[in-house]
Specification:
Helices cover about 5% and strands about 70% of the residues. The chain has about 210 residues and is mainly beta. The longest helix has 15 residues, at about 5-20. It is elongated.
């Protein structure tokens, strides 16, 4: 058994190396337009989008074993989200600006169609995202008073978020990606109480550079 172990390890290493031949890395930057989909037991709450950012790193691996043009991609980004809305703080109504920041990891499967001699292409992808709240501040404006609270306090937002995302765009000269995307949060992130539910909704426009 022992004399077959090195051969087995070599075969596993060779298999992993060959499967990772299409693996590439890059950097990403995007602008978020995030809002909350909020509801209470009796009515919904209108929220306005907050402009934020989405910056980090990206990995992409070709998946010709599925079909030519398919690929997997994943990112690790710092994502600035939040929204603006009017809510009740006891018997007083307050204008709220929420600014949470997440470490977000989307994992997609996609398809690319190349043309123009391989210099241009279009792509689309779909998959889940996972996010952990890192820090943030919510501001409550009540009359002339401003109150600041931690975005992820026990009576505000949950730290964990999960959802599904779509993305599509243009690839150019093998290195550049321009895209738009939308993420639907599936986790009720509210800990506000009083029957208030809140879900992240994020539209973004971005670009990436692949090395």
């Amino acid at each position: 058994m022992k004399k077959f172990l090195p051969l087995f390890l070599f075969a596993v290493t060779l298999s992993v190396a060959s499967s990772a031949q299409g693996l590439r890395y890059g950097v990403v930057g995007a602008m978020n337009f995030n809002s909350f989909s909020m509801e209470t037991v009796d009515f919904s709450i209108d929220t306005d989008s907050r402009v934020g950012f989405r910056d980090g790193f990206r990995a992409e691996m070709d998946a010709p074993f599925i079909f030519k043009g398919f690929y997997f991609d994943g990112e690790a980004v710092l994502s600035s989200k939040g929204a603006e809305y009017t809510g009740a703080n006891g018997d007083t109504y307050a204008s709220v600006t929420s600014r949470p920041y997440y470490l977000e990891v989307p994992i997609h499967i996609g398809y690319k169609y190349m043309f123009g001699g391989g210099n241009f292409g279009v792509f689309g992808s779909f998959g889940p995202y996972f996010a952990i709240g890192l820090f943030g501040t919510d501001k409550y404006y009540t009359g002339n008073e401003t109150v600041k609270v931690d975005s992820f306090s026990d009576s505000n937002l949950k730290r964990f978020d999960f959802g599904l995302g779509l993305r599509g765009g243009l690839t150019m000269f093998d290195h550049y990606r321009l895209y738009i995307g939308y993420d639907w949060g599936l986790v009720n992130i509210s800990q506000i109480g009083n029957g208030v539910d809140a879900y992240n909704r994020n539209f973004y426009i971005g670009a990436s550079y692949m090395f």
